[in-house]
Amino acid sequence: MRKINAMGSTGTLFGWAFGDSAREDDAAYVGELKREALSNAAEAAKSKGFDVEPGSEVFTVLSAGDALVDVDTAPDSLVVRCTVKLVGEGSESIHAEGPMNG
Question: Model-level pTM?
Answer without folding.
Answer: 0.79
